[in-house]
From TrEMBL, chain A:
Alphabetical list of InterPro entries matching this protein: MetI-like, MetI-like_sf
Region feature Disordered, mapped onto this chain: 1-35
Family: Belongs to the binding-protein-dependent transport system permease family.
Subcellular location(s) of the protein: Cell membrane
Membrane topology according to the record: Multi-pass membrane protein
ABC transmembrane type-1 domain: residues covered: 89-275
Origin species: Arthrobacter gallicola
Full protein name: ABC transporter permease subunit
Keywords of the record: Cell membrane, Membrane, Transmembrane, Transmembrane helix, Transport
Transmembrane domains' residue ranges: 70-86, 98-121, 127-151, 212-235, 255-278
Presence of the UniProt keyword Protein transport in the record: no
Keyword presence, Calcium: no
Pfam families: BPD_transp_1
From TrEMBL, chains B, E:
Molecular function, one GO term: ATP binding
UniProt source species: Arthrobacter gallicola
Highest taxon, organism lineage: Bacteria
SUPFAM superfamilies assigned: P-loop containing nucleoside triphosphate hydrolases (SSF52540)
Pfam families xrefs: ABC_tran (PF00005)
ABC transporter domain boundaries: 13-246
InterPro entries registered for this protein in UniProt: AAA+_ATPase, ABC_transporter-like_ATP-bd, ABC_transporter-like_CS, ABC_transporter_ATP-bind, P-loop_NTPase
Lineage, highest ranks first: Bacteria, Bacillati, Actinomycetota, Actinomycetes, Micrococcales
Keywords assigned by UniProt, alphabetized: ATP-binding, Nucleotide-binding, Transport
Protein name as it appears in the record: ABC transporter ATP-binding protein
Automatic annotation (TrEMBL), chain D:
Main location: membrane
Membrane-related topology note: Multi-pass membrane protein
Subcellular location: Cell membrane
Keywords attached to this entry: Cell membrane, Membrane, Transmembrane, Transmembrane helix, Transport
Xref: Gene3D superfamilies: MetI-like (1.10.3720.10)
Protein name: ABC transporter permease subunit
CDD domains: TM_PBP2 (cd06261)
Length: 289, 275, 363, 297, 275
């Protein structure tokens, strides 16, 4: 039940017990691991081509059908607005990005800490299960208004908390899974060394869980941005991408609104890329061994 | 019990009348029944038996990774727990069980580090061990950069790190292909001779058990009992070369173990067999 | 693409009322059903639209619904929106026209606690000032600018759908509509007195008094169709007529109007709804020249502020004068004339608001 | 992930634990409210713990009592809980439609990507990117585009826009999960199908689809939660009447005078989310057979 | 090529001069070099060799799961692709590879179903096959309810479903414990004798290869070449009982294969071995 926000089952290696033959691995399975996706320039060409094609189609439609900008602006116009308002977009992105980053870090740390606690004391896990499920299904919009009241409408904190909650769930769930993932053989080994609980935690449990934590963090990364952004919708100090999008849209300046949306997309991608990179770095050995 | 043995040199392992019953929910599984066996210091003993007969369970009891339901175990005259705390044994499993985020050196170092050995001493000991398993050039590699056989050698080096007088090995070569496996067997013979430690070795393979051991303990299907103990008289470990595998004495021993293993049971398929 | 909206399909003009063949009309509001729109709901409920040969469907708004865009893209025939918001849209290319300025006065306040020391816009400097954004902020900015307070001098806070930020002290001066948020405060218990907040507890900045009021709820129509489509022109007159009748009904029967709105699906509490009806009435009545007639001076003031007031990003609502098509009194004059003929009071010279007692929580 | 018989048997115990999990937060809430400072706890200007005023943190019994009071003072008003449940049901229905649409689209995309490797690398980054576009930017667009649609008797309704927006969030986990699941069969199984001279479609039906079930179920669960979030946001965004989202916004305004009121739709939202996830769990039970692999291997 | 053989009974498998080079990025791996081998109809041939020498690759080429870089392969005188489309062979892998969501019956039925056999015919054939592998009582069980040996028997039944005249097996008993393994070998001998099909059998185990085969093909490390072909003259398959494993002739054959396998290569550890 607590696996609501879980990434599909783990990377290769954890499933098969006998799958240690090199030949069984070199061939790999068909399909991809989205976790390792927007890696480096491996196959940037194809998605870029598709993107360019889509943009051309869009721009063509805007031209040919003479669509008014207040219905759908064309990509060229959006790009123009983006460049023209670069300062404002960057300022807004900085506000939203900072909130998302703080939410990501704090929510991530708390998620890991809670997972450590739950792994150490399964009682906690069972007690937390209903809360975790509730938090994971509750729409942010439902929480944001009461959170503003609880923490103060003049604070960025509420947005950070909203982002933090969104981050907490996947990080907690994945980390907990990671802590349970520590191979029994490794636990036995440490026990045979007469190692203490802390030594076992430090040498085996934590490192085994690290890739899982980062998987959770990657899933959470764009959630953090989107959540921080939606929270702006419900209050807090003025500034930020969400407020800018709605503000521009409410005066029908959709070109500008989409310029801010582009900012949001780039910010989301940045967060995703950074966490995906971290994930890749931290699972460079574990993924294969 | 330990007192009784204190005046003569303690056996490496002494197991007497051990039962192990697993309870999970309503079910009860008797894994071991009345198992008694003694491993002398420096002796190489293999445990062989059908899958699920309790070989691993017995090994885990000796290593104090599990406790018997009844019966007594002593390791070098001490309770297993004390032996574990004193690091009297090293252990290796079927899966090499290396920590993938540590280099080869880091893995071998692990037990030393856990016990707070100084960095310099650790370094020296690891170099020694790397040389012993022929991996001096691979200290900085990571497990995923090694072949299965090399990983298993690292695991053996790790189990030897504290210079234990007892080595516990649970199918350490089970995942290797036959050629690598034979090579590893040769190495193990050499190492156990060099270090003079006693070995309790779990395996499925009759030729492997015969090639390596001074004695082969044959176990019956669950509930695991000791069905027979076959003494192997193929000469000292140091004298066993690769050529041994082609000698008639070797084949005779293999046949003896096979017969002990298959026992009274007919070789035909048991249709109702389930896990 | 675009098959709807060409509303006046087979209507038989203004005379067709009796014939039963009604012209379908969609009206896009700028928020959920509430007494702010009491006149339209009353007109619907009382059959005024039907009398004019119209089959009106009222479309509620939402947080991201921009009524003027719904109108401009042909998904509605008329829309209710604030003039300054629409001026921006017109500059972005939305071809729509103000055909009736229903609200004559602005309802936007900036509310502070009486002891906060905020008595006018000049006192806002250094304070935490709330605003909803969404184009609701321009009067505030204009008032501040007029009083010499720059946006950089205040801490601008995005206000939520509630007044909690103000009540909790996070916002020193909060934006409030007389008919809604102001009442929300008065429905709340004052922890100091244990009673509901009283008007004396609050200090109110009214933009009507500060001279930076802008025109609010107006009926907007599609410019192109007004030019090309005679049927639409007739429908527009009919629509304005019925709407004004509805508002007149609300003036005379505020209790009934409030319950009509509640019946239309508003979940606001009873006393709150009645308060809103009453306050909204005050925005129309008494009417200087007849409800809906666009006052040139007020329009000019709105346009002037729209061109001269900068928001936090340094942008103004519009950069040049709106086109001449942005408003016209042609239809509302016709409507008023016809109403006069029918004996409907379109000025409400003797209008007296009722007294509404707010209950806790607006219930 | 594993749901062996062991867990099945533990149900009653799990329920008890769950109850504890509900009671403890209630206790913590009241305890903090009783002991915590009214202005909350801030460190260096950063608020760490919330305010404890009745406005910020109403008593749990205030919230509970509000649920059993009539929704409004109007004559014939139903109790709050009934109104909330009705709204939750309304939202659930739309979320269900969105979930279904999202699932179909997600599965379709995953099939496309599984079938054509080039499609895979070209489409997947865009799928990830799509989720970084804020909903609030899309909601009005969807409504506007939707309202342009009209074929014959079919008229686009606002609730359909909401469902489409829900689907926009729901399709993502399904696409990613299904793609992973379709790639999950062991090489040996794929080879086996090849030796049976089966085409892509047959291989898909007999191997990839059933093999993907263990991956698909968590994805569907996540999609259900996302669909609920999407529906609620979209309800606010385009102002659809009848659901929890609109109720949240409308009731927020009453917070000052009626502090328990805004919490009612929040509980509704939780119930709603749990119901959605529960429905997917039901699917999991129906597909039990295809989850044997989780225990075997 | 097929023409050349059309007038005499086609061999089950004919491989001549086959190379297989894998390219991945800039790297090139030559898995097979100039491999030629013929398997007569009804003949049992084992492939043995060190890990990575290309045994699986060769089997996959025969099964048309892969295509040679150069050289020719024919299966019953046809190109492998045709043989595959005609379902001329059955195949079994190291992991039993049963579909966990299908019952035993469902698994065995799978190939029949995909080729549109009628339900009644399918039922009958599956009953027959279940009886053949001694699992008649387990048709409605699911794979996870079976032991490893039973699963492997199901896989064999499945590979026999279409009554192929050729069985390709890639280490089918690799994951089983020794006792189960020996039992499965006895069964396989019986089944192959009963059905008279040719078998190409990949294994790592010398005794297994010797026990089962008419001929053992010994391959060299990568790039895989055929180093030697050892004829085993232990009598017809039908005549090979469990007792055979204890006979001197058996040990002689084992030694022969071992020598062929280890060849000129020293038995010492190659320190620089990597994957
Ligand atoms: N923790 C446990 N709980 C319950 N049953 C257990 C546990 N550990 C082992 N068993 C059971 O005890 C029996 C002996 O297991 P054990 O692992 O010792 O066998 P083994 O001889 O090592 O088998 P293998 O050769 O397959 O490794 C088996 O039936 C096993 O299922
Ligand atoms: N698809 C592939 N791409 C690249 N290299 C491959 C591929 N398949 C196999 N190889 C390489 O070809 C060589 C032969 O592989 P193969 O699996 O046939 O060996 P094998 O004899 O079956 O080994 P094992 O006994 O371990 O199963 C190996 O070096 C392997 O890494
Ligand atoms: C996102 C958003 N938030 C708050 C309001 C509140 N508000 C400000 S003016 C106004 C007019 C209609 O009452 C209302 C409701 C809004 N409109 N949109
Ligand atoms: Mg074992
Ligand atoms: Mg192979």
């Amino acid at each position: 039940m607590s696996g609501i926000v879980r990434d599909p089952p783990a990377a290769p290696g954890s499933r098969t017990r006998a799958g240690t033959r090199p030949s069984a691995r070199t061939r790999g399975v068909a399909g991809i691991d989205p976790g390792r996706l927007p890696g480096t320039g491996r196959s940037l060409a194809a998605p870029l081509l598709l993107g360019v094609a889509a943009l051309l189609l869009w721009q063509g439609a805007v031209w040919l059908l003479e669509i008014e900008p207040f219905i759908v602006p064309g990509p060229l116009a959006i790009a123009g607005a983006f460049l023209e308002n670069l300062r404002n977009v960057l300022d807004a992105a900085a506000v939203t990005g900072a909130n998302a980053a703080i939410g990501l870090v704090v929510g991530g740390l708390l998620g890991v800490a809670a997972a450590v606690a739950s792994a150490a004391a399964p009682v906690l896990d069972r007690l937390a299960a209903p809360m975790v499920v509730a938090l994971s299904v509750i729409p942010i919009v439902a929480l944001a208004p009461v959170l503003y009241t609880m923490y103060g409408a003049d604070q960025q904190a509420t947005r950070q908390i909203v982002a933090g909650i969104a981050v907490f769930i996947p990080v907690y769930v994945n980390s907990l899974r990671g802590f349970r993932q520590a191979a029994p053989v490794h636990r036995d080994l440490m026990r045979s060394y007469a190692a203490g609980t802390w030594q076992i935690t430090r040498s085996v449990t934590l490192p085994s869980a690290v890739p899982y934590m980062f998987t959770g963090l990657r899933i959470a990364s764009s959630l953090a941005v989107v959540s921080a952004l939606i929270a702006e919708y419900f209050g807090g100090p003025v500034g930020g991408l969400g407020k800018s999008v709605t503000s521009a849209a409410s005066s029908s300046n959709y070109t500008l609104a989409w310029a801010y949306v582009v900012g949001a997309v780039l910010l989301g991608l940045l967060f995703y890329a950074v966490t995906a990179g971290l994930e890749k770095y931290f699972s460079r050995h574990t993924a294969r061994a | 019990m330990n007192e009784a043995h204190s005046d003569r040199p303690a056996a490496a392992v002494e197991v007497s009348g051990v039962d192990r019953i697993f309870r999970s929910g309503r079910e009860e599984v008797q894994a071991l029944r009345g198992v008694s066996v003694t491993v002398a210091a420096g002796e190489f003993v293999s445990l062989i038996g059908p899958s699920g007969c309790g070989k691993s369970t017995l090994l885990r009891l000796i290593a104090d990774l599990d406790t018997p339901s009844s019966g007594m175990i002593s390791v070098f005259g001490k309770p297993p727990r004390q032996a574990r705390l004193d690091q009297d044994y090293g252990i290796a499993f079927q899966q090499a069980g290396l920590l993938p985020w540590r280099s080869v050196r880091g893995n071998i170092e692990l037990p030393l580090q856990t016990h707070g050995a100084a960095a310099a001493a650790r370094r020296e000991r690891v170099d020694e061990l790397l040389a012993m398993v022929g991996l001096s050039d691979f200290g900085e590699h990571y497990p995923d950069q090694l072949s299965g056989g090399m990983q298993q050698r690292v695991a053996i080096a790790r189990s030897l790190a504290e210079s234990p007088k007892l080595l516990l090995m649970d199918e350490p070569f089970g995942a290797l292909d036959e050629m690598t496996r034979e090579r590893m067997q040769n190495e193990l013979i050499r190492i156990s001779a060099e270090t003079g430690c006693a070995v309790v070795f779990v395996t499925h393979s009759i030729p492997e058990a015969v090639f390596l051991s001074d004695r082969v303990v044959v176990m019956s299907p669950r509930p695991g009992e000791i069905r027979d103990v076959v003494d192997i008289t193929l000469g000292t470990a140091a004298a066993r070369g690769a050529g041994l595998r082609e000698e008639a004495a070797f084949y005779d021993a293999v046949r003896l173990v096979r017969e002990a293993l298959h026992g009274a049971e007919p070789a035909a398929v048991r249709g109702a067999e389930t896990r | 693409l675009g098959l709807t909206g060409c509303g006046g399909s087979g209507g038989s003009g203004e005379e067709g009322a009796a014939a039963g063949e009604l012209t379908p009309v969609k009206l896009q509001l700028q928020w959920f059903a509430q007494a702010q729109f009491a006149g339209y709901y009353a007109a619907l409920d009382q059959g005024f639209f039907e009398e004019e040969g119209l089959d009106v469907e009222i479309l509620e708004g939402g947080a991201d619904i921009v009524p003027q865009d719904v109108l401009a893209s042909g998904d509605a025939d008329y829309a209710i929106s604030w003039v300054p918001k629409v001026l921006g849209s017109i500059e972005q290319g939305a071809a729509i026209t103000n055909v009736a300025q229903i609200f004559e006065r602005s309802a936007t306040l900036q509310v502070a606690m009486a002891d906060s020391g905020i008595d006018g816009p000049e006192d806002l400097a250094g304070k935490k000032v709330g605003s909803w954004g969404y184009g609701n902020e321009w009067e505030l900015f204009a008032g501040m600018q007029k009083a010499g307070v720059e946006i950089g001098d205040i801490e601008l806070i995005q206000q939520a759908f509630d007044m909690n930020g103000f009540l909790a002290g996070d916002i020193d001066a909060a934006q409030a509509m007389t008919y809604n948020e102001y009442a929300q405060v008065l429905e709340t218990e004052n922890p100091d007195t244990g009673e509901l907040y009283q008007p004396e507890d609050l200090s109110v900045v009214d933009w009507n008094e500060e001279g930076t009021a802008m025109l609010q709820d107006a009926i907007w129509a599609d410019t192109q169709r007004l030019e090309d489509d005679e049927e639409y022109q007739a429908t527009t007159v009919a629509f304005i007529k019925a709407a004004i009748k509805g508002w007149a009904y609300a003036k005379d029967n505020p209790e009934e109007a409030a319950s009509i709105v509640t019946g239309a699906g508003s979940t606001l509490g009873q006393s709150h709804q009645l308060w809103m009806t009453n306050e909204t009435n005050k925005l129309l009545w008494p009417s200087t020249n007849g409800v809906g007639l666009i006052d040139e001076a007020a329009w000019e003031q709105t346009v002037e502020i729209a061109m001269g007031t900068k928001n936090e990003t340094g942008a103004t609502i519009i950069s040049e004068e709106p086109p001449a098509t942005a408003y016209t009194n042609e239809y509302v004059e016709k409507a008023l004339a016809e109403l006069e003929e029918e004996g409907v009071d379109t000025r409400g010279a003797g209008y007296e608001p009722i007294e509404v007692t707010l209950a806790a929580g607006g219930n | 992930m594993r749901m062996g018989g062991r867990q099945e048997r533990m149900r009653p115990a799990r329920l008890l634990w769950g109850l504890g999990g509900v009671l403890i937060p209630v206790l913590v809430w009241e305890l903090y409210k009783a002991l915590g400072p009214a202005e909350g706890v801030s460190v260096g200007g950063i608020p760490l713990l919330p305010r404890t005023t009745d406005l910020a943190m109403p008593h749990t019994w205030t919230m509970l009592a509000r649920l059993f009071a009539p929704e409004s003072s109007a004559a014939g008003a139903v109790p709050m809980w009934a109104a909330v449940l009705q709204a939750a049901g309304f939202t659930l229905a739309i979320a269900g439609a969105g979930w279904l649409l999202g699932t179909v689209v997600g599965l379709g995309l995953a099939m496309l990507m599984q079938r054509f490797r080039s499609a895979n690398s070209a489409v997947l980054p865009w799928i990830i990117l799509s989720q970084t576009v804020p909903l609030i930017a899309i909601a009005p667009l969807v409504r506007r585009w939707g309202s342009q649609l009209e074929f014959g008797p079919f008229v686009w309704e606002n609730w359909m826009s909401v469902a489409v927006i829900a689907a926009y969030l729901a399709f993502f986990p399904v696409a990613v999960g299904a793609l992973r699941g379709f790639g999950a069969p062991e090489k040996a199984h794929v080879d086996l199908m090849h030796t049976y001279a089966l085409g892509w479609w047959q291989t898909f039906l007999r191997l990839r689809l059933p093999a993907s079930v263990p991956y698909l179920l968590p994805a569907l669960r996540l999609a259900a939660a996302s669909a609920v979030v999407g529906t609620v946001v979209a309800e606010v965004s385009i102002g659809l009447r009848g659901g929890i989202g609109r109720m949240i916004v409308e009731f927020a305004a009453a917070a000052g005078g009626d502090p328990g009121k805004p919490w009612a739709p929040i509980f509704g939202a939780v119930v709603l989310g749990l119901a959605a996830v529960g429905c997917v769990a039901l699917i999991g039970v129906l597909l039990r057979r295809y989850r044997r692999g989780e225990q075997a291997v």
